[in-house]
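ok trying again, last paste got cut off:
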Amino acid sequence: MSNPHLINGYPYISYQSENLSEEKVEANAQFFYEKMDVRRSVRSFSDKPVSQSVIENLILTASSAPSGAHKQPWTFVAVQDATVKSQIREAAEKEEYESYHSRMTYHSRMTDEWLDDLKPLGTDWDKPFLTTAPWLIIMFAQTTSPDKKKHYYVQESCGIAAGFLISAIHHAGLVTLTHTPSPMNFLKKILNRPDNERPFLLLPVGYPSTECYVPDIHRKTLGEIAVFM
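nice, full thing came through this time. structure:
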């Protein structure tokens, strides 16, 4: 009989289930849904400090996400330094200004339809949260490993990890916003990242400002998003 901890020549460990009752599983699912349902993207941040240990745990939670062939093709750069945040804001606003105003030029970045869809959300090229929020977490996708070995499903893997990170931020009692200035190559330059990495997502992290308003928008119903067969 083969060693139960060795499968196809590779070591395995026994998965330890919590072995919860059906009622507890139902309660956990309901609780987590209700908690996440009040999550909102926030653009008005307080400058109240957040400890580095909190940010470390948020990143560790994100890194627990599944990834193609378990290659974990991500790097998280956490920025607290005010000078670096200012550099990022200046570069991001330059790109965002071009995006929001390019329809007036020959090289349109954002269509009229896209800009109209953004109006209810109150977005524009001005990004004060990039310097107000105590932390910026910039997620980089690794196209290959540092030693040039292949990675698989990089985009999908990083997307899942980003979801874990956003959930962890909300669970901790903090707020964030998914910010994707386009193009984002300036982040690679400012943060001095290697050739095998490309910017994937920027998340300001902190507490909401004392007076913080978010758009009165609603999520699709279960019937609009799910099919049960």
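cool. The first strand starts at residue 6 and ends at 7. The mean pLDDT is 91.
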